[in-house]
Design brief:
With 274 residues, the chain is of the alpha/beta class. It has a single domain, classed as 3-Layer(aba) Sandwich (Carbamate kinase). The protein contains nine helices and nine strands. Strands 3-6-2-1-9 form a five-stranded parallel beta sheet. The chain has a two-stranded antiparallel ribbon with strand order 4-5. Strand 4 and strand 5 form a beta hairpin. Helix 2 runs parallel beside helix 4, helix 3 packs parallel to helix 6 and helix 4 packs antiparallel against helix 6. The chain starts with a strand and ends in an 11-residue tail after the last helix. The C terminus is likely disordered. The structure holds aspartic acid (ASP) and magnesium ion. The site of magnesium ion has 6 residues, from loops.
């Protein structure tokens, strides 16, 4: 199981790098969990905030999201596939416009509306990457796009999302033939409730998605790839001479995991630790 976060799938060049990394780790059964392209989840949630304020700027922001993804599609996919991908994107965009229009009338969005909107980024990144990887394989092992919402069932409690393992395993079995060999390109972050509503695993939840799928698919290993050389002594975006920490015990990592979100400012995402 391999997971790549938002900054690892920021643009077409990043997608190429991810494909090359995946190809360097051949295995008859491979799972690849992707986040949304860098900044897209924030941008999607911002659309909801704009709509709540009745700021029609959300339409222009949606257009920017289209341009960004269209550039990746047109750079990486054959022309017909890129055009087909954009037709599907425009259907999502029409749905999103409708949802946001309703939000602007209501002046507020319920949590399930926010969850639904926030999840489009992972659908877009993975549905771009799967056909790209397949084209690079030119008839090799099959690549299958896998929608985590059809499989992972979670219930939220006060501590966060709780995976409903039995239900999730049963769904996986129904979706994936026992002896499946090939590569699954899996949406990180998103999941469903037992009632079938879309939900998420919380901000930065794709690492958790990778672990959930690692367990569901009986993965031998889970690799969380990131774009820094290891765990650093500080966030390298803020502290240019941050050092790579050579070794870290489980307890030290736990301690850092608890304190890191407190020492970054609340408006940006907590430093990634793996
Ligand atoms: N895209 C989601 C977020 O930004 C999940 C993730 O990247 O891990 O929170
Ligand atoms: Mg992340």
């Amino acid at each position: 199981m391999h997971k790549f976060g938002g900054s690892s799938v920021a643009d077409a060049e990043c997608f190429r790098r991810v494909a090359a990394i995946v190809e360097s780790q051949p295995s008859p059964r491979l799972g690849i969990v992707l986040s949304a392209c860098k900044g897209v989840t924030d941008a999607l949630l911002n659309l909801v905030t704009l709509a709540e304020r009745r700021d029609e700027g959300y339409l222009a922001q949606l257009q920017l999201l289209r341009e960004r993804h269209a550039l990746i599609a047109e750079t990486l996919l054959p022309p017909a596939a890129a055009a087909g991908w954009l037709v599907r994107f425009d259907k999502d965009r029409a749905d999103l416009s409708g949802i946001l229009h309703t939000v602007s009338i209501m002046r507020s969005a319920a949590q399930n509306v926010r969850d639904l909107v926030a999840g489009y980024g992972e659908i877009w990144s993975t549905s771009l990457f799967a056909p790209y990887l397949e084209a690079r394989r030119a008839g090799g092992a099959p690549v299958r796009w896998f929608d985590a919402r059809a499989c992972v069932v979670v219930e939220w409690d006060s501590l966060g999302p709780v995976v409903q393992w039995e239900d999730s395993r049963a769904r996986l079995q129904a979706l994936l033939a026992d002896g499946f060999r090939g590569t699954l390109v899996i949406t990180g972050f998103i999941a469903s409730t037992a009632q079938g509503l879309q939900t998420t695993l919380g901000r930065n939840g794709s690492d958790f998605s990778a672990s959930v799928f690692g367990s569901l698919l009986d993965a031998a290993e889970i690799h969380i790839w990131t774009d820094v050389d290891g765990v650093l002594s500080a966030d390298p975006r803020r502290v240019p001479d941050a050092q790579v920490i050579d070794s870290l015990s489980y307890n030290e990592a736990m301690e850092l995991a608890y304190s890191a979100p407190l020492i970054t400012d609340a408006a940006t995402e907590p430093m990634e630790l793996a």
